[in-house]
Amino acid sequence: MLKADIQLDTKGLACPMPIVKTKKAMEGLVDGEVLEVQATDKGSKADLAAWAGNIGHQYIGTIEENEILYHYIRKCSKDINVEETFENTISIEEITGRSGVILDVREEVEYAFGHIEGAISIPMGELDARIKELDMDKEIYVICRTGKRSDMAAHKLANAGFNKVYNVLPGMTAWKGELTKNI
């Protein structure tokens, strides 16, 4: 494995815990130090890369060995990089019956086991490559499991010029309606 200043074990934890623990661990690092995050959650690759980019830390990359993902993130100055929450939000209850597009940014397996009928699946890690599949003229309601990945995806869409983007809170954990399954 590569040398890192600090190692963080998040093996066995699912979203949003790898990000939560990484954020806390990064607070204890000095600018320029590298954190190694060990994870088993396949979604952590896209999640940690997007989180780091969102607040200005350098996501160096990931190595997978024996089903463990080793993520490497370099801490960058807090003076110039401030994490912001996406300002346009909508509750999960409010998206029912609206004419916009529901964009589900969870991993493919999460989507397959249960999603809102009609939702489009573009996992967070594929968003950059597939962004042209979305219509800029439609309202886009971005949803994930808890609201963290969708927050990062909403930022990406807004930065790409999408003006009608909403982060759905609190996410699929609060969905009370029917679920469509693809399994």
TrEMBL record:
SMART domains recorded: RHOD
Question: One matching Pfam family, short form?
Answer: TusA
Q: Which InterPro entries match?
A: GlpE_sulfurtransferase, Rhodanese-like_dom, Rhodanese-like_dom_sf, TusA-like, TusA-like_sf
The signal peptide here is none
Q: Which domain of life is it from?
A: Bacteria
Q: Boundaries of each Rhodanese domain copy?
A: 96-180
Matching PANTHER family: FAD-DEPENDENT OXIDOREDUCTASE, RHODANESE-RELATED SULFURTRANSFERASES
Q: What is this protein called?
A: Rhodanese domain-containing protein
Organism of origin is Viridibacillus arvi
